[in-house]
Design a protein that fits this description.
The protein is of the alpha/beta class. It has 17 helices and 14 strands. The N and C termini lie far apart (54 Å). The chain binds uridine-5'-diphosphate-xylopyranose. Uridine-5'-diphosphate-xylopyranose binds next to helix 10.
């Protein structure tokens, strides 16, 4: 099928590339000429394992193209996918739909025939119904609107796209035939597909992300109780996870959930509830719990170090999780900013997040070439991200660089059974 994808962020670029991989003809469009030219030259705007090879391969065989000319690209499209950003407006706190509306206007102005428009961005309930009306009012062509939320995780995006646990489709018109053709490769592998109306599909995305965020927030609270009563959170996670009604995923405690989805989507769901006059007590508590958890971590750091003024704190990991270069809404932002306010000097090291960190903190913190340089003369090293590289650090050598050999492990990176000698190790949920 001839597909145009508007927006070359995580969702757009990965979806477009994977649709090309499974045999469709795809043009990815973006107003950002630098990004488009980079992609044509094989330069990825994001760090995502496996993406570069797949982009280069499909670009070379001609079924993946990149363009900044939306009008030209849309003319012959059978399917247009909207995958632009939906940031939270910092003043109103609401989801900013300006990129979505601009994409819809561009589609309407440039259609060369009937088309199916698929919404892959996460949008508030009611958005697709509104766009369906907009696209079909005073238009020469019929535009069948589809809500098709995407569940891909950064770092696993390609596999999540090619092997999803389900495909969710919402629509107000007959689209099943075309959608089955679009996802033929998935459906022949018996991946479940669910059809419903617009609000059902839109709400599934928020419900899934909020449920996952709730799981993480709950285990972070249990970890704080665990360390206060002398329990071991790693065993608790195992014991709870073996109950198949709960499942063993998304139970690992850490510095708090972050990223471009969980914090934004839990807040957006609360907004949706408020708009239909429903008090979502539990949904509200998830955000509060996550913010409170980061505050607790800062106060634990100040308990370990005493007065933080002038103390050097080493931060290992600033991305919101491993296998991404994304520092957006990372718990590291909240934690480091608090430590800076308390007068601490911050040295950071992250395998992929250094350039994102420079955009956030500029000259306010020190950027180090490796974990050992980051540990130089420091009073405490804090592990915030579960990078596999951090398991390979020689912690004995690291501690020799430090003024005080203390490590606060918030991601269960260091094996408690073999704690490095001479180091005072604090672990979230055990003794942290
Ligand atoms: C998430 C959803 O998983 C995905 O389906 C959706 O489409 C987009 O949002 P992502 O933001 O890439 O994906 O990251 P994810 O792996 O879900 O982690 C989110 C946050 O939760 C991270 O900060 C991570 O460190 C934290 N987390 C996750 C934990 O602290 N413990 C866990 O056990 C799992």
């Amino acid at each position: 099928m001839k597909i145009v994808v508007i927006g070359t962020g995580y969702v757009g670029l990965v979806s477009g590339t994977c649709f090309a991989e499974i045999g469709h003809e795809v043009i990815c469009v973006d107003y950002d000429l630098v990004k488009i030219n980079g992609l044509i030259d094989g330069v990825m705007p994001i760090y995502e394992p496996g993406l570069e090879e797949m982009v280069v391969r499909n670009f070379a065989r001609g079924n993946l193209k990149f363009s900044s000319n939306i009008a030209e690209a849309i003319k012959d499209a059978e399917i247009v996918i909207i995958a632009v950003g939906t940031p939270t407006n910092s003043i109103t706190g609401k989801v900013d739909l300006s990129y979505i509306n601009a994409a819809a206007e561009a589609i309407k102005a440039n259609l060369g025939g009937d088309v199916i428009v698929i919404m892959k961005s996460t949008v508030p309930v009611g958005t697709c119904a509104g766009l369906s009306l907009l696209l079909n009012t005073d238009s020469k062509y019929i535009c069948r609107m589809v809500s098709n939320p995407e569940f891909l995780r950064e770092g696993h995006a390609i596999d999540d796209f090619l092997n999803p646990e389900r495909i969710v489709i919402g629509s107000d018109s007959e689209v099943e035939g075309e959608i089955r053709q679009l996802y033929a490769d998935h459906l022949k592998r018996n991946i479940p597909i669910l059809f419903g109306n617009f609000p059902t599909a839109e709400l599934i995305k928020y419900a899934a992300n909020t449920a996952l965020a709730a799981k993480v927030a709950l285990m972070n609270e249990i970890a704080c109780i665990s360390e206060r009563v002398g329990a071991d959170i790693t065993k608790i996670v195992e014991g709870v996870g073996l109950d198949s009604r709960i499942g063993n995923k998304f139970l690992s405690p850490g510095p708090g959930f972050g990223g471009s989805c969980f914090p934004k989507d839990t807040k957006a769901l609360l907004q949706i509830a408020e708009e239909v006059d429903f008090e979502g007590y539990l949904i509200r508590a998830i955000t509060k719990s996550n913010e409170n958890h980061m505050t607790n971590i800062v106060s634990n750091i100040s308990k370990i170090c005493g007065d933080l003024s002038g103390k050097i704190i080493t931060i290992l990991g600033v991305t919101y999780k491993a296998n991404t270069d994304d520092v957006r809404s990372s718990p590291a932002i909240n934690i480091i900013n608090h430590l800076l306010e308390m007068g601490a000097v911050i040295n950071i090291y992250d395998p992929e997040g250094m350039s994102g960190a420079k955009n956030i903190w500029g000259a306010k913190i020190n950027y180090c070439k490796d974990p050992y340089a980051a540990a130089k003369n420091s009073n405490l090293a804090v592990i915030l991200t579960e990078w596999v590289q951090f398991k390979e650090i020689d912690y004995k050598k690291l501690s020799e660089e430090m003024l005080e050999p203390k490590i606060y492990d918030l991601r269960n990176v260091i094996d408690i059974k073999e704690p490095p000698k001479g180091i005072k190790l604090y672990k979230l949920g055990i003794n942290g």
